[in-house]
């Protein structure tokens, strides 16, 4: 009886949280929606307009490229740094944890001004992406990746694992590649998906640092806010669907890997 009560409460909460999302998606498919509870009609007109707009396609490509490149750089830099610090310099982790809180404590406008000072003389691009925005997106992803990896490490006996691998003839690098990383997969996957979603939806840094010079999806959405609400709802709905698909693929890939490991 208690379990049913819990399921009922969770179901009510999920329904309550999903109403705005479902309303946005339904509005994007409606031809018009006035004083009635349900739309007057359904149409794909807004999606046709969206996909026929070259600016939208280019901004979507830029946002995906920017988010993926930023996430990959963040993972490559952050994961080894945390593992090395946890094994060799445990006290340094406290400093890293403090740094991971700075993006939440310092307003984005202040961080943007600081980044402009740091990168003002650099005109470097990576895959056509200005390096200044990569630095900003690194600071956005850093807290989430740090927390995901740190939580995974807290459940491991790091010293014992590395020593065991060394006794069996492996190096510290072997321990990192074949023992530690596989045990951190859940934390990396969850923090990676969360970071990707946040980076795709990030507007403040992109608008302050690069603006229209490298138009991302959110800058495009901001420029189109005066247009039909159906049109913007269609774009937001695509964002929801994309995040759902990415999450679904990541979860199922993890299940497939687990099945192969059992075999």
Automatic annotation (TrEMBL):
<feature type="transmembrane region" description="Helical">
    <location>
        <begin position="231"/>
        <end position="253"/>
    </location>
</feature>
<keyword id="KW-0472">Membrane</keyword>
<feature type="transmembrane region" description="Helical">
    <location>
        <begin position="193"/>
        <end position="211"/>
    </location>
</feature>
<dbReference type="GO" id="GO:0055085">
    <property type="term" value="P:transmembrane transport"/>
</dbReference>
<dbReference type="InterPro" id="IPR000515">
    <property type="entry name" value="MetI-like"/>
</dbReference>
<feature type="transmembrane region" description="Helical">
    <location>
        <begin position="64"/>
        <end position="89"/>
    </location>
</feature>
<keyword id="KW-0813">Transport</keyword>
<feature type="transmembrane region" description="Helical">
    <location>
        <begin position="7"/>
        <end position="29"/>
    </location>
</feature>
<feature type="transmembrane region" description="Helical">
    <location>
        <begin position="101"/>
        <end position="120"/>
    </location>
</feature>
<protein>
    <submittedName>
        <fullName>ABC transporter permease subunit</fullName>
    </submittedName>
</protein>
<dbReference type="Pfam" id="PF00528">
    <property type="entry name" value="BPD_transp_1"/>
</dbReference>
<comment type="similarity">
    <text>Belongs to the binding-protein-dependent transport system permease family.</text>
</comment>
<keyword id="KW-0997">Cell inner membrane</keyword>
<keyword id="KW-0812">Transmembrane</keyword>
<dbReference type="GO" id="GO:0005886">
    <property type="term" value="C:plasma membrane"/>
</dbReference>
<feature type="domain" description="ABC transmembrane type-1">
    <location>
        <begin position="60"/>
        <end position="250"/>
    </location>
</feature>
<feature type="transmembrane region" description="Helical">
    <location>
        <begin position="126"/>
        <end position="146"/>
    </location>
</feature>
<keyword id="KW-1133">Transmembrane helix</keyword>
<dbReference type="InterPro" id="IPR035906">
    <property type="entry name" value="MetI-like_sf"/>
</dbReference>
<keyword id="KW-1003">Cell membrane</keyword>
């Amino acid at each position: 009886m208690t379990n049913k009560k819990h399921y009922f409460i969770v179901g009510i909460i999920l329904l309550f949280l999903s109403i705005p999302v479902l309303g946005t998606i339904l509005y994007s498919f409606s031809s018009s929606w006035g004083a009635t509870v349900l739309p007057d009609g359904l149409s794909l007109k807004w999606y046709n307009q969206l996909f026929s707009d070259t600016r939208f396609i280019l901004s979507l490509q830029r946002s995906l490229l920017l988010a993926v490149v930023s996430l990959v750089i963040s993972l490559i830099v952050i994961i080894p740094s945390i593992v090395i610090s946890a094994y060799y310099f445990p006290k340094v982790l406290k400093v890293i944890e403090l740094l991971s809180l700075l993006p939440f404590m310092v307003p984005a406008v202040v961080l943007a001004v600081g980044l402009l000072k740091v990168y003002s003389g650099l005109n470097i691009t990576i895959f056509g992406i200005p390096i200044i925005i990569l630095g900003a997106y690194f600071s956005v992803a850093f807290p989430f990746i740090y927390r995901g990896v740190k939580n995974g490490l807290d459940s491991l006996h790091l010293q014992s694992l590395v020593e065991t691998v060394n006794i069996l003839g492996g190096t510290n690098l072997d321990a990192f590649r074949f023992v530690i990383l596989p045990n951190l997969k859940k934390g990396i996957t969850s923090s990676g998906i969360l970071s990707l979603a946040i980076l795709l939806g990030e507007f403040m840094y992109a608008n302050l640092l690069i603006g229209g010079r490298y138009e991302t999806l959110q800058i495009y959405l901001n420029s189109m806010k005066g247009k039909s609400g159906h049109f913007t709802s269609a774009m937001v709905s695509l964002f929801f669907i994309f995040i759902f698909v990415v999450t679904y693929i990541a979860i199922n890939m993890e299940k497939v890997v687990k099945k192969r490991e059992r075999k």
